[in-house]
Design brief:
about 350 residues, alpha+beta, 12-stranded antiparallel barrel, two-stranded antiparallel ribbon, 14 strands, elongated
């Protein structure tokens, strides 16, 4: 499970690479997807045969071309690299919603005298709006010596109201993805969300949304659905607040068109992500610095192997005014990746919250 790349067609592709005189690592242990994931090459026998035929045809048209040239020309990438970009978008979205809900619960806790502060009455106001811009940089080793750098620029926003023990809201986001080799893409998401407080310490959240992706210069446009549900516990200890979260995220994506490459693709995909996070915050006047560690288990459809990831996030919230809060944060991935096929993930973000 910790080994990130185990090819569904490993034996066949290795034999194929050896037969053609390719270096073993060019195809070893890798399942290939379109640049933004979700279209892993089909069945074991079919994938091997189709890749063979397509590569031989490619070499006939371009004598002397390598397996790397073939992959890049067809915008095929290791699924881990492709999925890292896809997962960043939905993770940023659901995290922004969850963090906004958590912040409101904390404000209510502080206002009631918990967490070592009397807080301010504005935390009880009915309406809340928020916005979270993030910049994510992902650098991937493509497994044959090449590298791919991907930058995404995402803005997530929302508004909600508190009714007794419930919070009801709606959110949306726009993401622009730019890459060196892969096509660029625009990702749009919209989702209603809700939270329910069982008591001042325990609450649950639920998100259900739709996303639309438009990929530059290709037929990979498509539509998707995603959900996220979590159970959260807040424990105040004087000026320190500890937060634990456990949840599940589901995603489904269907492409509108297939590539005319000749090899088989699955035009729809699904995945499950299970996560646990722990966070420590310190109430220091108008400042609220925090440290968050999150573990994720990514379980895609059968052709791809499961992946485990751990992330470290540092940030601070600052109450500019009783009704305005600003925040800054930085996140990086802690876990190592498979040898020669690693993914380097770094993210910077900020958030703005208005209460009225």
């Amino acid at each position: 499970m910790k080994k990130r790349y185990q090819n569904a067609a490993k034996a066949g592709v290795l034999l194929f690479a050896s037969t053609l005189g390719l270096e073993a690592e060019a195809a070893s242990g890798t399942t290939y997807c379109d640049e933004y994931g979700g279209t892993a090459v089909d069945s074991v026998a079919g994938a091997t045969q189709s890749l063979q035929q397509s590569f031989l045809s490619f070499q006939s048209s371009f004598p002397g071309s390598s397996f790397e040239d073939f992959l890049v020309s067809n915008h095929l990438f290791p699924c881990e690299s492709a999925n890292a970009t896809q997962q960043a978008s939905v993770r940023n979205f659901t995290t922004a919603v969850s963090q906004n809900i958590q912040f409101q619960i904390l404000q209510s806790l502080f206002a009631s005298g918990g967490g070592g502060s009397s807080g301010d009455a504005s935390s009880n106001r009915a309406w809340n709006t928020w916005g979270t811009p993030t910049f994510t940089s992902i650098e991937s080793n493509l497994g044959f010596g090449g590298r791919e750098s991907t930058n995404s620029y995402q803005f997530t926003f929302g508004g909600d109201t508190k009714i007794d023990q419930f919070i009801f809201g709606a959110s949306g986001s726009y993401t622009r993805i730019d890459a060196e080799i892969a096509n660029g893409a625009d990702d749009y998401r919209v989702a209603p969300y809700a939270a329910y407080s069982f008591n001042k310490n325990l609450y649950a959240t639920a998100i259900m949304g739709y996303n639309r992706k438009r990929v530059d210069n290709s037929k990979l446009d498509g539509n998707g659905l995603f959900t996220d549900a979590s159970l959260n516990y807040i424990l105040p200890i004087d000026s320190v607040v500890l937060v634990g979260r456990a949840g599940h995220r589901f995603g489904y994506f269907a492409q509108e068109g297939r590539r005319s490459t000749g090899f088989n693709h699955d035009d729809d995909s699904w995945d499950n992500t299970y996560y646990i996070s722990g966070e420590a915050l310190y109430k220091w006047g108008d400042f609220l610095p925090f440290l968050n560690v999150t573990w994720e288990h990514f379980d895609p459809e059968d052709l791809q192997d499961d992946m485990d990831s751990a992330f470290l996030k540092l940030g601070v919230q600052y109450a500019v005014h009783s009704d305005i809060t600003l925040g800054l944060n930085y996140q990086t991935e802690l876990t190592g990746r498979a040898e020669d096929q690693d993914v380097y993930y770094n993210q910077a973000g900020m958030d703005l919250r208005l209460r009225f």
